[in-house]
Amino acid sequence: MTSAASASDYPSKDIRMVIPYGAGGPTDIIFRQIAREAEKELGVSVVPVNMTGAGATIGSRHVMQATPDGYTILGGHDNIALSKIAGMVDYSYDAFDPVARLTQTFNMPTTYPDHPVQDASEIAQYIADNPGEVRFSMIPTSTDHFFWVQMFEAMDIDMNDVRMIGYADTSEQMAALAAKEIDFTITNPACCSAFYEDGTMRALGIAHSERLDSLGEIPTFHELGIEMESATSRGIFAPKGTPQEHIDILASAFENALENEELQQRLINDLGSVPLFLEGQAYRDFLTENEATLTQAAENIEF
């Protein structure tokens, strides 16, 4: 048994990691890559199970209701809180025992190559010049929906001056952007690095305080005078009541996994996701603040 598991008989069998999104998407890829490293610490397989549907709540509800023994965990992100805020479910982060935050993927407003807006700082003036005509895509109640609301607030943009166009998923938004049915969408390197490189899409800034090494030509929001940061924060959650010893073993395994330099480089350079491990009370405090920020943003959203 490896060091992460030596303090207990746990784990003595494979661990199911429910991912409430489809195979091949950014969330799926990120969790699978990290899980492969965590397996080496745990001495058992971490088996990804894609459980999609109902705005990612089928998977989260399944884990919430699972036996709290450490053998069923959730690979989730901000959507856990967003689903409650939007009235889709009656539970949020506090329905789980948080294990650890693993990564943050910073978001970027994006347009098609020949759009007249050159960077995010020009969006407000473009809207002022074209009131009621500028089209922003989003998946209702998703992280990109909330991103736009927060950005509009940071830039003093009146939501009545823009058109919000809803789509079912990211692929539909990408197709709409390529067809110039919309002006702007939200992307991140986890889904779209290849599109930035081949010129299919043009990122207008990154909602982070530092440029990404892999996309160093893209300016930060702070450089552009936009005082806002936005990231999709992915982490591991266990059913409420999971023994603390099991949570600690899981957290240690995932922390050690993120120390692997090859994995770090894949996450940063290929997936635009920064390993930012957080556990225990610090992670619980982060989740509380995260939900409060999203709840405040929701005051300007009609569900």
TrEMBL record:
Extract the CDD domains matched here: PBP2_Bug_TTT
Q: Which domain of life is it from?
A: Bacteria
Organism, per UniProt? Halomonas salipaludis
Q: PANTHER family attached here?
A: BLR1237 PROTEIN (PTHR42928:SF5), TRICARBOXYLATE-BINDING PROTEIN (PTHR42928)
**Do you know which InterPro entries this protein is assigned to?**
BUG (IPR005064), Bug_dom1 (IPR042100)
Q: Which family does it belong to?
A: Belongs to the UPF0065 (bug) family.
Record-annotated membrane-spanning stretches: none
SUPFAM superfamilies cross-referenced by the UniProt entry:
Periplasmic binding protein-like II
Question: Where do the coiled-coil regions begin and end?
Answer: none
Protein name from the UniProt record: Tripartite tricarboxylate transporter substrate-binding protein
